[in-house]
Give the backbone structure.
Amino acid sequence: MLSDYQRMNINVVAEEVGIRTFSPLWRKDQANYMRELTKFGFRFVITSASAYGFPMDLVGKEISGEEIEEVIRAADKYASIVRLKVVRLKLS
């Protein structure tokens, strides 16, 4: 959600095939976004993680507010970017 390089690559490919893109989550604060997801009743599962220091025991587990704070603390500690790959997203 923070990578302008990825956003631009997607936009270039989309433009080449005549598709318009809409990227409302780009540049959105990822920690606050994860907090908002649970605040509004979404449930999700982290399906993969490749950042140093990421709490790997959370991969494959349904994430709650407590786990979100654990991910954010790890990201702050290891200066990594929190990236989510959501496999399942639904309202409670």
